[in-house]
Amino acid sequence: MARLSEADLILNPDGSVYHLNLLPKHISETIITVGDPARVYRVSQYFDDIEFEMNKREFITHVGKYKGKRVTVISTGMGTDNIEIFFTELDALINVDLKTREVRSKKRKLKVIRIGTSASLQEHIPLDSHLVTEYAVGFDSLMNYYDLPMDSLEQSVGKDIQKKTGVPITPYVVRGSSILRAQYAGDMVAGNTITAPGFYAPQGREIRIPLKYPTLASDLTNYCHKQSDFKITNFEMETAGYYAMARLLGHEVLSMNAIIANRPKQQFSKDPNKVVDGLIKKVLSRI
Description:
Helix content is 26%, strand content 29%. The longest helix is centred in the first third of the chain and has 16 residues, at 80-95. α2 runs parallel beside α6 (239-249). The protein contains 7 helices and 15 strands.
């Protein structure tokens, strides 16, 4: 591949990547990600020490050690547009020589663990539980700009969901890392997650603007792909972007969510911070 131009891979004056403001030395083998920048501090408070901090837009980074193992935790903000920036620059830090701007012939593979929050679409998934995403279903448009390979089941589910919900796009469907799932989430509720391009109408919430798809949430709650018994368990805004970019770039990624709302029961957690902290501690204990 030709040398990457200064307009395509933008670097800061210190040689760090443009948005993350990080150098290769700041990237550990295991990356924990969170959406909320404030949640970075809730992860790193358990570190033995913090060797580096960077605050750049919504991308907050702490690098430190947890029980002697080096860990990087980064916030991404909300939405798959941010995930594309995060993953592209993260991969460049380890798989591009930033001085020569040439892609390295030997690629490194990272382990990326997402800790998020989500709303359950099924009554039987209780508030305050922890859910791991097996498959993510992207209702956003990010993969319209990439050639994402999908297997026959993933393609079939995406087409079937579009047909049964009437949404104007065919969702992309991607499976997460089975390797990381075995390490981190064997005792969690397993589910299939919708990644929506917004929090309100795209997730069936109506405040003052009438919904174009008023039955979307209930349609997804009741959805079942008959050939595989594939059902939808929860809504959020990033996981499909994570899984798709990881597949395209060759990394291992797993998304886990603290379930802080139950949409069918119209319930919200009494102490969401406690549920999130419980998930953080669980993930750290399994690194």
